[in-house]
Design goal:
The protein is mainly beta. The chain has one helix and 35 strands. It starts with a strand and ends with a helix. Keywords: Repeat, WD repeat.
Length: 391
């Protein structure tokens, strides 16, 4: 918890979370309920923590900046005014976005690193500029009859040198610095619905499939080696996260009310399972804090579940944060500040008799929440600032 990291050129400590206290809403962006339903599809903090990326169905991709007053300080006022979040960059991509991922070496002080990759319906993988929203380049995957094929999932390698893209029958690996249609294939038995690369063990990639299984592979020098296969989910795997030590893998599936923790040193069976509410086919993401202590997950009940996974067995420290009145499909913990981002919304079916949706105002929102220490006394904050200035 006392380790340091760099944020905007300054050394800062990892976040000190306080999930026991009331979460303070910091900022919110809301999308209206048009006929094509502008619900969100998860959210992801940039690796340097300066901005937040989200995808809105039918309304493109949007980048929100972290409010400037949140870069410093160990506490905030409970009465802090909620800030309206406005996109710093928007990409009006009207088609359905399947998956997206920040470049792992992204740093706002180096413009060349500020980008993300996204895969959409009936299109190639695009690399987007995070400053201008312009398209930098594309990576095109083709099937056995030389037809352009859309990737179901996408992620970067730990060093950012390669882009792993999941397709119906294989995983294609593109060199990030070489756009076009040159790639290496790794065959899979089922569609690769979810991909994640290990930061602690470069070259190790987990491939989740719609057939409820996970395959771990090791990739180096263009060759692949099968490591192990993990089975246990009741639904297709849609979200995964490696622990920061690389020894554990957390995974969740669609219509599957369990998050499974796998000990990769003994991969034969799950280490433990924790429950969450997930009763739709929608992707509901999980995330791990930078310190490696906290696992968070969204849920269709509008609650964010939080577990302390530093405990050796099944976590006993568990918090439920009722933050939304609709499905929380995306959660992302800030890399260095006690700020939680959430994305809400889901597909709501038509009334079969009137072919309309009910008049309820659905919550299609991107929110930032303070999950650290907070106070009601303004003199407390003043004393902290004075004490810091006297050091």
């Amino acid at each position: 918890m006392g380790s340091e990291a760099v944020l905007e050129g300054h050394y800062v400590q990892y976040a000190h979370y306080n999930f026991e206290s009331t979460s303070v809403e910091l900022g919110r962006a809301q999308w209206p309920n048009y006929d094509d339903q502008h619900y969100l599809r998860s959210c992801k903090w940039s690796p340097d923590g300066t901005c937040l990326l989200t995808v809105v169905r039918g309304a493109g991709m949007h980048v929100m900046e972290l409010p400037s007053d949140l870069y410093n300080g160990d506490s905030i006022m409970n009465s802090r005014q909620i800030q309206a979040l406005m996109p710093a960059v928007s990409v009006p991509e009207s088609g359905l976005i399947y998956d997206y991922c920040w470049y792992p070496g992204m740093n706002s002080s180096t413009a060349a690193t500020c980008c993300w990759a996204a895969s959409g319906h009936e299109g190639p993988i695009h690399l987007w500029d995070a400053f201008s929203g312009e398209l930098r380049c594309s990576y095109r995957g083709f099937n056995s009859v030389d037809e352009l094929e859309a990737a179901i999932s996408v992620t970067f390698s730990a060093d950012g040198q390669n882009i792993f893209c999941g397709y119906k029958k294989n995983v294609k690996i593109f060199s990030t610095g070489r756009p076009g249609r040159e790639y290496v294939e790794y065959p899979t038995n089922h569609p690769a619905s979810c991909l994640v690369a290990s930061l602690a063990q470069p070259g190790v990639v987990a491939i989740g499939t719609w057939k409820n299984s996970i395959e771990l592979v090791s990739q180096s020098d263009g060759s692949f080696r099968h490591l192990c296969k993990l089975t246990g989910h009741k639904g297709g795997v849609t979200t995964m996260a490696f622990s920061h030590c690389g020894m554990r893998l957390y995974s969740g599936g669609r219509k599957d009310k369990e998050i499974i923790c796998w000990d990769l040193r003994v991969p034969g069976r799950p280490l433990f399972c924790v429950p969450r509410d997930a009763n739709t086919n929608q992707k509901i993401t999980i995330d791990i804090s930078s310190c490696g202590k906290w696992l968070v997950s969204g849920g269709t009940d509008g609650k964010v579940q939080v577990w302390n996974v530093e405990e050796n067995s099944t976590p006993t420290t568990h918090y439920q944060l009722p933050l939304h009145n609709d499905c929380v499909n995306g959660v992302s913990l800030h890399p260095y500040r006690p700020v939680l981002a959430t994305a809400s919304g889901q597909h709501h079916t038509l009334d079969p008799l009137h072919h309309t949706r009910n008049t309820q105002s659905y919550e299609n929102a991107l929110c930032m929440w303070w999950v650290g220490n907070s106070h009601d006394d303004p003199d407390y904050i003043t004393s902290i600032i004075k004490a810091a200035s006297n050091v």
